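Record copied across here:
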Amino acid sequence: MNLQTKQDIIYKALDDGKARDIKIMDVSQISTFTNLMVVATGTSTTHVRSLGSRVAQEVKDAGEEPLGVEAGPEPDWVLVDLGDAIVHVMTESARAHYALEKLWEVQPASQTIAE
């Protein structure tokens, strides 16, 4: 699957699941392990888990197996590893605490998709 198709599937899965503040960052120029970093916010740990599962399932339904999904029993952060795309779904407090967008600082190449 090409990267644009995967990005579209990820965005649609998150948007359909009512994720907030979806941000897709092209990190291909600064990362050796992935090309896209996606960060989205869920409203609760249940919502975060559901969004992560939704992304993994939609990608799987499109014919590509996720490399891994990491989450705890009451997750405030779920990571979905899709190889050339990494998806982070976090509660609002976890997202504010870890500030992944600032960590990657890819302002010129990033795009924010409004709710």
The mean pLDDT is 90. The chain has one domain: 3-112.
